[in-house]
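Support request from a user on the community tier.

User writes: "When I paste my C-alpha cells into the form, the page sometimes reloads and wipes my input. The last time it worked, I copied everything first. Here is what I submitted, just in case something in the input itself triggers the reload:"
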C-alpha cells in the first residue's frame, strides 16, 4: 500500500487473487452488526420467495432508460 496524504491518494498493488464469495462470507458475517444481519436476512428471504419482489427490493433495472445507438459516430468523427 502506498499513500500520498497531501493529495488524498492511496495505491494498493500486488498480485490479484480470485476467491469464491462462499469463501469470503464467514469473514464478512463476523464483521456485520445486528442491523446489517437483519437487513441481509430480509434481502435473502425476498430473493428466495419471489424473483419479482427481489428485483423490486434491489432496485429496478435501469437499462431501459438508456436509448439505443442509432447513429454511426465513426462517420461523424472522420469528417
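"...and here is what came back when it finally went through:"
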Amino acid at each position: 500500500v502506498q499513500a500520498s496524504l497531501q493529495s488524498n491518494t492511496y495505491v494498493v498493488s500486488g498480485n490479484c487473487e480470485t476467491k469464491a464469495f462462499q469463501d469470503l462470507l464467514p469473514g464478512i458475517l463476523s464483521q456485520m452488526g445486528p442491523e446489517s444481519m437483519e437487513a441481509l436476512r430480509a434481502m435473502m428471504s425476498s430473493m428466495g420467495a419471489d424473483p419479482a419482489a427481489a428485483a423490486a427490493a434491489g432496485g429496478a433495472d435501469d437499462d431501459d432508460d438508456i436509448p439505443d445507438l442509432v447513429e454511426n459516430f465513426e462517420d461523424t468523427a472522420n469528417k
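Agent notes: The reload is a front-end session timeout and is unrelated to the input. The two ends are 46 Å apart (CA to CA). The longest strand covers residues 2-4. Escalated to web team.
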